[in-house]
Amino acid sequence: RMETDCNPMELPNNTGFEEDSDYRDFEGTDVKDMRLEAEAVVNDVLFAVSNMFVSKTLPCAEDVAYINVETRERNKYCLELTEAGLRVVAYDFDQTDDRLQTPYHETVYSLLDSLSPAYREVFGNALLQRLEALKKDSQS
């Protein structure tokens, strides 16, 4: 069974525009730019890794972007971000290896959780601190 980070009841209703190719390029419709998505991914977890940035040498497109990440263990990865999720495509920055058949992860959290015990620890501690702060706020 696949883990999901999203409650299906929270998803917006599909308007049907996405299905109709005539509207796909229409201004204001929801065409995802993967570079923007990749930047958001980086900003979300940068605090818990040594280094992370969107690749400037590998091509970004509407449907794909590449993210370089160095874990706190000093391991380097190049990640591919698509609608299918994130996966490791190379064990160095700005590289892709077509022979590498790594699984897709729905979220950057689950991918980094599988790659880096130090990420898991830092992220978990940050979560605990945030919960403690919320607890204090609700008591005051």
TrEMBL record:
InterPro entries named among the record's database cross-references: GSKIP, GSKIP_dom, GSKIP_dom_sf
Gene3D superfamilies reported for this sequence: Hypothetical protein (hspc210)
Residues covered by the GSKIP domain: 34-134
Pfam families per UniProt: GSKIP_dom
Biological-process GO terms, alphabetical: regulation of canonical Wnt signaling pathway
Domain of life: Eukaryota
One term under GO cellular component: cytoplasm
A molecular-function term among this protein's GO annotations: kinase regulator activity
Family indicated by similarity: Belongs to the GSKIP family.
The protein, known as: GSK3-beta interaction protein
Species name: Aptenodytes patagonicus (King penguin)
